[in-house]
Amino acid sequence: MKRIRVRAANGSYEILCGRGVLARSASSVQRLASGGPVFLLSSPRVWHHWGARVERLFRGISRAAILFGDREAEKNLETVEKICRQLVDAGADRRAMLVAVGGGVVGDVVGFVAASYARGVGLVHVPTTLVAQVDSAIGGKTGVNLPEGKNMVGAFYPPRLVLADPDMLRTLPLREYRSGIYEVIKYGVIGDENLFRFLEHGMRDLLLRKPSALDFVIERSAVQKARVVSQDEHESGLREILNFGHTFAHALESVTRYRRYQHGEAVGLGMIAASNLGVAQGLLSPAAAERITRLIAAVGSLPSWPGVAAARLVAAMQADKKTRAGKLRFVLPERIGKVRCGVEVEPSAVVRVLRECAFPRAAK
Ligand SMILES: NC(=O)c1ccc[n+]([C@@H]2O[C@H](COP(=O)([O-])OP(=O)(O)OC[C@H]3O[C@@H](n4cnc5c(N)ncnc54)[C@H](O)[C@@H]3O)[C@@H](O)[C@H]2O)c1
Ligand SMILES: [Zn+2]
Known about the structure:
It is built from 14 helices and twelve strands. By secondary structure, it is of the alpha/beta class.
C-alpha cells in the first residue's frame, strides 16, 4: 500500500492506494469520523457489485447506504436535493462523515453534498473506476450539471481521505476501464516519461488488469495529480497542464452532444490532435508524436472522428472560452514527459491539423 499526501488549504489529506485498501477502509473512516455518524453513499450499479462487501466491512460503523442513480443525466441538483433530504431523515448532523463509493459521478455528487450539507461535513472517497482513482477523487473538485452545461454548479471541497483499491476495478466494464487508460497516458505525456515507457511495454498487462501493472500506473498517476493540485488547488495556473488533450476532447464531446464518446476516448483523440499540433508548431518531434499516437492506438480502437467540418470543432473550442484575441490556447507537448501551457495558436492552423487527423489520406 502506498500513501500519497495532497496539500489543501483546509488541511492536507492522504490517498491510500493498493490492493487491500478497501478492507482497511472501515477502520480508517471510523478513526477520522471520531464518533460522528458515518454514511455510505453509492449507486445501485456499484452496490450490485460491491455493496455486500462494503456493508460487511462497515457493519456496526455506518448507517444504511443511500443509493442514487449515477448516469451523467442524474448528476444534477435534483439528485443533490434528494440525498440531502435523505440525510436529514437519517439524522445526519454537522459531525457526519460521507463515504462516496463509486465512479466520478458518485464522487462529484457526494462531494458537492458534503460541501454544502450543514455547511460542510466530512468526506471520504472510495473511487471504483480507473478515472476516479487516478483523477476525479483527487483534487477536491466537486459539482453537478445544469441543463445549460456540465459541472456548472460546484465547489472546491477536499476529502479527508481517498482509498483507491485497484481490486475494485475487476468489475468495471471494459469500455469504462479503457477510458481511464487514456487519462493515465495523459499523465505520462505531461510529466512522467517512466510511466509512458512502462505503458509502451506493459499495455497488454494493463489491459488484462494484472495487479502489478495496475498498482504501478494508479500510484504513478495519483502521485502526479496530487503534485499538481497540491501546488494549485484552485486552478489558477499549474493545474492547466491537466488539460492536455482536453480542449480538443471537450469540442468533440460537445459537437456529438456527449453521445458518441466516453470522455476518455475523446481525450485519446484529443491527445493525438494536440501532439500533431505540437509538431505543426515546431514544439514536438514527429517521432515523439508518433510514439504518443501509437500508445493511444495500443489501448484499442477508438470511435472515429465525428463527421463534422473542422471549422465546427474550432467554433466549439472558441465557445469553450479558452480564446484570447481570436487565438486558441492549448497545452502542447514539447517531449514525452513535458508540456508547455498556454500556447496560442491561430484557428487556421488548428483547422489544418484537425483535417489531417480526421481525413489523414485526403490531406496528404
Ligand atoms: N472532479 C473531478 O476532478 C473530475 C475529474 C474527471 C471526471 N470527473 C467527472 O467524473 C464523471 C465520470 O466518472 P467515471 O469515468 O468514473 O464514470 P462514472 O462515474 O460515470 O461510472 C461509469 C459507469 O461504471 C459503473 N461503475 C463504477 N464503478 C464500477 C465498478 N467498480 N464495477 C462496475 N461498474 C462500475 C457506474 O455505475 C457507471 O455506470 C463525469 O461526470 C466527470 O465530469 C470529475
Ligand atoms: Zn479528463
